[in-house]
Amino acid sequence: MNSRSLIAALVAGITSCAIVPQATAATIVADTVLDYFDSGAGPMAGPYGGTFPGVFPVPVPLSYATDGNESTFVSLPTGSFLTLGFGTGYVFDGPGLDLFVSEVGGASETANVYISSNFGSTFTFLGVATTATVSGFDFASIPNLPVDAKINAVKVVGLDAFGGSPGFDLAFVKGLEGSSVVIPEPATMALFSLGLLGIAASARRRKS
Ligand SMILES: [Ca+2]
Ligand SMILES: [Ca+2]
User: In this structure, which residues have their CB less than 5 angstroms from ion ligand 1?
Assistant: First the structure.
């Protein structure tokens, strides 16, 4: 095998590796505000919300929904929404539940949850988040979602104006972190090793 075919084998080895998402067993917080819409259905112009237990409804920064803190929240009355992004990675369909949406308080407040793999250009409906709990969702519940979908944005849309701070009181969105792992197939590994041996051999030839 000459050096040119060795290099071809090496390139073939690299390009035929499979890149698949795998669980890191860590969760990441949706830490970036991509979009916010105030429907006007609340008692004051948004964003409003508060701390729980604490003071509400009062004007709050949108960071109350991205700080990962379960006691600070942004209220989303009927039709208001927040689109949050994962700035440090992406979320994927791992074993069991993949996405977690926290609502604080508890007055039958709910929200529609949508996910996006293109930072909010298009969305797929995931489910309804319920009140006074951390709602868990499994991406496997979506029939046509690609198994390797990398979810990088989540949209939460308020469905009502119940509660002391009217609407869905969004404290945080978290997700199961995915990481891309390159898994070469056995035949590919053989070619890849051959390529490395070839490079080492030609390096020795050049040296002598
Ligand atoms: Ca899952
Ligand atoms: Ca919060």
Answer: 93, 98, 138, 140
